[in-house]
Amino acid sequence: MASASESEHLKIILLGGRWAGKSSCGNTILHKDVFSIGAQTEVCVMETKSFAGFQVTVVDTPSWNWVSAEDSSEELKQELKRGLEMIGEGAHVFLMVYPLGAPFIERHKIAVQEHLELMGADVWEHTMVLFSRGDWLGKGTIEQRIEGANKELKWLVERCKNRYHVLNNKSRGDEFQVIELLQKIKQMISQKRKWSKTEPPEFTGETSSAGAPEEPSPKRNK
Ligand SMILES: Nc1nc2c(ncn2[C@@H]2O[C@H](COP(=O)(O)OP(=O)(O)OP(=O)(O)O)[C@@H](O)[C@H]2O)c(=O)[nH]1
Ligand SMILES: [Mg+2]
Protein backbone atom coordinates (compact mmCIF):
# COMPACT_ATOMS: atom_id res chain seq x y z
CA MET A 1 0.00 0.00 0.00
CA ALA A 2 1.36 3.45 -0.91
CA SER A 3 2.39 5.81 1.90
CA ALA A 4 0.32 8.94 2.54
CA SER A 5 2.95 11.11 0.85
CA GLU A 6 2.88 8.99 -2.35
CA SER A 7 -0.84 8.34 -2.40
CA GLU A 8 -3.36 10.20 -4.50
CA HIS A 9 -5.24 12.93 -2.67
CA LEU A 10 -9.00 12.68 -3.23
CA LYS A 11 -10.90 15.78 -2.18
CA ILE A 12 -14.61 15.36 -1.62
CA ILE A 13 -17.33 17.91 -0.89
CA LEU A 14 -20.64 16.48 0.31
CA LEU A 15 -23.70 18.42 -0.79
CA GLY A 16 -27.42 17.86 -0.41
CA GLY A 17 -30.73 18.79 1.13
CA ARG A 18 -31.93 18.35 4.71
CA TRP A 19 -31.53 14.91 6.21
CA ALA A 20 -30.05 13.44 3.04
CA GLY A 21 -27.40 11.49 4.91
CA LYS A 22 -24.37 13.69 4.12
CA SER A 23 -22.77 13.52 7.56
CA SER A 24 -23.39 9.76 7.74
CA CYS A 25 -21.80 9.25 4.31
CA GLY A 26 -18.82 11.36 5.42
CA ASN A 27 -18.34 9.16 8.47
CA THR A 28 -18.64 5.99 6.40
CA ILE A 29 -16.08 7.26 3.87
CA LEU A 30 -13.61 8.20 6.62
CA HIS A 31 -14.57 5.20 8.75
CA LYS A 32 -14.61 7.51 11.72
CA ASP A 33 -17.21 9.50 13.71
CA VAL A 34 -16.22 12.98 12.58
CA PHE A 35 -19.50 14.57 11.56
CA SER A 36 -22.55 14.86 13.82
CA ILE A 37 -25.53 12.77 12.80
CA GLY A 38 -29.10 13.59 13.61
CA ALA A 39 -28.28 17.21 14.50
CA GLN A 40 -28.52 19.57 11.57
CA THR A 41 -25.08 20.46 10.18
CA GLU A 42 -24.70 24.26 10.44
CA VAL A 43 -21.13 24.90 9.30
CA CYS A 44 -18.63 23.14 7.03
CA VAL A 45 -16.36 20.64 8.73
CA MET A 46 -13.28 19.13 7.07
CA GLU A 47 -11.31 15.99 7.91
CA THR A 48 -8.56 14.01 6.17
CA LYS A 49 -7.61 10.37 6.50
CA SER A 50 -5.40 7.91 4.65
CA PHE A 51 -7.25 4.86 3.46
CA ALA A 52 -6.72 2.11 0.88
CA GLY A 53 -3.75 3.90 -0.66
CA PHE A 54 -5.54 7.23 -0.90
CA GLN A 55 -5.38 10.39 1.13
CA VAL A 56 -9.04 11.32 1.48
CA THR A 57 -10.30 14.75 2.50
CA VAL A 58 -14.02 15.16 3.14
CA VAL A 59 -15.88 18.43 3.66
CA ASP A 60 -19.35 18.10 5.19
CA THR A 61 -21.62 21.06 4.44
CA PRO A 62 -24.90 22.45 5.78
CA SER A 63 -28.05 21.28 4.03
CA TRP A 64 -30.39 23.33 1.99
CA ASN A 65 -34.13 23.11 2.40
CA TRP A 66 -36.05 21.94 -0.64
CA VAL A 67 -36.55 25.43 -1.98
CA SER A 68 -35.11 27.50 -4.77
CA ALA A 69 -31.63 28.94 -3.97
CA GLU A 70 -33.22 32.37 -4.13
CA ASP A 71 -35.16 31.48 -0.99
CA SER A 72 -32.13 30.09 0.87
CA SER A 73 -30.38 32.35 3.36
CA GLU A 74 -27.24 34.29 2.42
CA GLU A 75 -25.47 32.59 5.37
CA LEU A 76 -26.15 29.17 3.91
CA LYS A 77 -24.97 30.19 0.44
CA GLN A 78 -21.79 31.74 1.84
CA GLU A 79 -21.11 28.65 3.94
CA LEU A 80 -21.48 26.35 0.91
CA LYS A 81 -18.96 28.49 -0.98
CA ARG A 82 -16.66 28.44 2.05
CA GLY A 83 -16.70 24.63 1.87
CA LEU A 84 -15.22 24.86 -1.60
CA GLU A 85 -12.57 27.34 -0.43
CA MET A 86 -11.66 25.07 2.49
CA ILE A 87 -10.79 22.21 0.16
CA GLY A 88 -8.22 24.44 -1.55
CA GLU A 89 -6.38 24.06 -4.84
CA GLY A 90 -6.45 20.95 -6.99
CA ALA A 91 -9.01 18.53 -8.33
CA HIS A 92 -12.02 17.81 -6.18
CA VAL A 93 -15.41 16.17 -6.59
CA PHE A 94 -18.87 17.02 -5.33
CA LEU A 95 -20.96 14.15 -4.04
CA MET A 96 -24.61 15.07 -4.37
CA VAL A 97 -26.14 12.97 -1.59
CA TYR A 98 -29.70 11.73 -1.98
CA PRO A 99 -31.45 9.05 0.08
CA LEU A 100 -32.65 6.04 -1.85
CA GLY A 101 -36.38 5.62 -1.63
CA ALA A 102 -37.13 9.32 -1.09
CA PRO A 103 -39.22 10.95 -3.80
CA PHE A 104 -37.32 13.24 -6.16
CA ILE A 105 -39.75 15.58 -7.86
CA GLU A 106 -39.64 18.96 -9.61
CA ARG A 107 -39.00 21.04 -6.46
CA HIS A 108 -36.09 18.76 -5.47
CA LYS A 109 -34.70 19.12 -8.97
CA ILE A 110 -34.87 22.92 -8.80
CA ALA A 111 -33.25 23.00 -5.35
CA VAL A 112 -30.43 20.68 -6.42
CA GLN A 113 -29.74 22.52 -9.66
CA GLU A 114 -29.74 25.99 -8.15
CA HIS A 115 -27.72 25.15 -5.03
CA LEU A 116 -25.17 23.09 -6.92
CA GLU A 117 -24.66 25.81 -9.47
CA LEU A 118 -23.59 28.16 -6.67
CA MET A 119 -20.37 26.12 -6.83
CA GLY A 120 -19.61 27.30 -10.36
CA ALA A 121 -20.91 26.89 -13.87
CA ASP A 122 -18.85 23.72 -14.41
CA VAL A 123 -20.07 22.03 -11.21
CA TRP A 124 -21.72 19.16 -13.12
CA GLU A 125 -18.35 18.16 -14.57
CA HIS A 126 -17.23 17.33 -11.04
CA THR A 127 -20.39 15.85 -9.55
CA MET A 128 -21.44 12.29 -8.79
CA VAL A 129 -24.76 11.24 -7.25
CA LEU A 130 -24.21 9.46 -3.95
CA PHE A 131 -27.30 7.53 -2.92
CA SER A 132 -27.42 7.07 0.84
CA ARG A 133 -29.66 4.49 2.54
CA GLY A 134 -28.26 1.65 0.46
CA ASP A 135 -30.07 -0.70 2.87
CA TRP A 136 -33.31 0.52 1.27
CA LEU A 137 -32.34 -0.80 -2.13
CA GLY A 138 -34.00 -4.13 -1.47
CA LYS A 139 -33.49 -6.98 -3.88
CA GLY A 140 -33.08 -5.00 -7.09
CA THR A 141 -29.97 -3.24 -8.36
CA ILE A 142 -29.37 0.49 -8.45
CA GLU A 143 -29.42 0.29 -12.25
CA GLN A 144 -32.94 -1.17 -12.15
CA ARG A 145 -33.98 1.51 -9.67
CA ILE A 146 -32.69 4.27 -11.97
CA GLU A 147 -34.24 2.61 -15.01
CA GLY A 148 -37.65 2.67 -13.33
CA ALA A 149 -37.21 6.16 -11.83
CA ASN A 150 -39.18 9.26 -12.74
CA LYS A 151 -37.83 11.79 -15.22
CA GLU A 152 -36.52 14.10 -12.47
CA LEU A 153 -34.25 11.47 -10.93
CA LYS A 154 -33.12 10.35 -14.37
CA TRP A 155 -32.30 13.97 -15.10
CA LEU A 156 -30.07 14.13 -12.01
CA VAL A 157 -28.16 10.98 -12.96
CA GLU A 158 -27.78 12.13 -16.55
CA ARG A 159 -26.65 15.59 -15.44
CA CYS A 160 -23.90 13.82 -13.48
CA LYS A 161 -22.92 11.96 -16.66
CA ASN A 162 -24.22 8.68 -15.30
CA ARG A 163 -21.85 8.75 -12.33
CA TYR A 164 -23.43 7.40 -9.19
CA HIS A 165 -22.71 5.22 -6.20
CA VAL A 166 -24.68 3.70 -3.33
CA LEU A 167 -23.58 3.72 0.32
CA ASN A 168 -25.22 1.84 3.14
CA ASN A 169 -24.30 3.82 6.23
CA LYS A 170 -25.79 1.13 8.42
CA SER A 171 -23.01 -1.16 7.24
CA ARG A 172 -19.93 0.84 8.13
CA GLY A 173 -17.82 -2.31 8.34
CA ASP A 174 -18.28 -2.82 4.58
CA GLU A 175 -15.05 -1.25 3.37
CA PHE A 176 -15.58 -2.50 -0.16
CA GLN A 177 -18.41 0.00 -0.76
CA VAL A 178 -16.02 2.83 0.17
CA ILE A 179 -13.09 1.50 -1.86
CA GLU A 180 -15.36 1.22 -4.86
CA LEU A 181 -16.49 4.82 -4.39
CA LEU A 182 -12.89 6.05 -4.09
CA GLN A 183 -11.97 4.17 -7.27
CA LYS A 184 -14.84 5.86 -9.11
CA ILE A 185 -13.69 9.25 -7.83
CA LYS A 186 -10.11 8.53 -8.86
CA GLN A 187 -11.30 7.59 -12.33
CA MET A 188 -13.35 10.77 -12.56
CA ILE A 189 -10.35 12.91 -11.62
CA SER A 190 -7.92 11.15 -13.94
CA GLN A 191 -10.39 11.34 -16.81
CA LYS A 192 -10.63 15.06 -16.25
CA ARG A 193 -6.81 15.37 -16.22
CA LYS A 194 -6.57 13.35 -19.43
CA TRP A 195 -9.03 15.68 -21.13
CA SER A 196 -7.13 18.77 -20.10
CA LYS A 197 -3.88 17.23 -21.39
CA THR A 198 -5.33 16.14 -24.74
CA GLU A 199 -7.21 19.38 -25.27
CA PRO A 200 -5.84 20.71 -28.58
CA PRO A 201 -3.74 23.83 -27.97
CA GLU A 202 -5.15 27.09 -29.25
CA PHE A 203 -4.15 27.66 -32.85
CA THR A 204 -1.27 30.12 -32.97
CA GLY A 205 -0.40 29.85 -36.66
CA GLU A 206 2.89 28.05 -35.82
CA THR A 207 3.48 24.41 -36.78
CA SER A 208 4.10 22.01 -33.91
CA SER A 209 7.81 21.23 -33.36
CA ALA A 210 7.15 17.50 -33.60
CA GLY A 211 5.19 18.03 -36.78
CA ALA A 212 2.73 15.30 -35.78
CA PRO A 213 -0.97 15.81 -36.39
CA GLU A 214 -3.05 16.53 -33.28
CA GLU A 215 -5.07 13.68 -31.80
CA PRO A 216 -8.78 14.49 -31.81
CA SER A 217 -10.05 15.27 -28.32
CA PRO A 218 -12.16 12.56 -26.72
CA LYS A 219 -15.89 13.10 -26.44
CA ARG A 220 -16.91 14.72 -23.16
CA ASN A 221 -19.87 12.56 -22.46
CA LYS A 222 -18.65 10.50 -19.45
N1 LIG B 1 -31.22 3.32 7.23
C1 LIG B 1 -30.31 4.24 6.94
N2 LIG B 1 -30.35 5.44 7.55
C2 LIG B 1 -29.39 6.36 7.23
C3 LIG B 1 -28.38 6.10 6.28
N3 LIG B 1 -27.61 7.22 6.15
C4 LIG B 1 -28.12 8.12 7.01
N4 LIG B 1 -29.18 7.61 7.67
C5 LIG B 1 -30.00 8.29 8.70
O1 LIG B 1 -30.55 9.47 8.13
C6 LIG B 1 -30.64 10.50 9.13
C7 LIG B 1 -29.94 11.75 8.61
O2 LIG B 1 -28.55 11.48 8.48
P1 LIG B 1 -27.45 12.63 8.53
O3 LIG B 1 -26.18 11.98 8.13
O4 LIG B 1 -27.49 13.38 9.79
O5 LIG B 1 -27.99 13.53 7.33
P2 LIG B 1 -27.49 14.99 6.92
O6 LIG B 1 -27.71 15.13 5.46
O7 LIG B 1 -26.11 15.21 7.41
O8 LIG B 1 -28.55 15.86 7.72
P3 LIG B 1 -28.51 17.41 8.15
O9 LIG B 1 -27.09 17.86 8.23
O10 LIG B 1 -29.18 17.38 9.49
O11 LIG B 1 -29.35 18.09 7.15
C8 LIG B 1 -30.00 9.92 10.40
O12 LIG B 1 -31.02 9.44 11.22
C9 LIG B 1 -29.16 8.77 9.87
O13 LIG B 1 -28.98 7.74 10.83
C10 LIG B 1 -28.35 4.80 5.65
O14 LIG B 1 -27.51 4.48 4.78
N5 LIG B 1 -29.34 3.93 6.02
MG1 LIG C 1 -25.35 16.71 8.57
TrEMBL record:
GO terms for molecular function: GTP binding. It holds the Pfam family AIG1. Residues 7-206 form the AIG1-type G domain. It comes from the Eukaryota. Residues 190-222 are annotated as: Disordered. The keyword Cell inner membrane does not apply. Keywords: GTP-binding, Nucleotide-binding. InterPro entries: G_AIG1, GIMA/IAN/Toc, P-loop_NTPase. PANTHER family: GTPASE IMAP FAMILY MEMBER 4-LIKE-RELATED, GTPASE, IMAP FAMILY MEMBER-RELATED. Belongs to the TRAFAC class TrmE-Era-EngA-EngB-Septin-like GTPase superfamily. AIG1/Toc34/Toc159-like paraseptin GTPase family. IAN subfamily. This is AIG1-type G domain-containing protein.
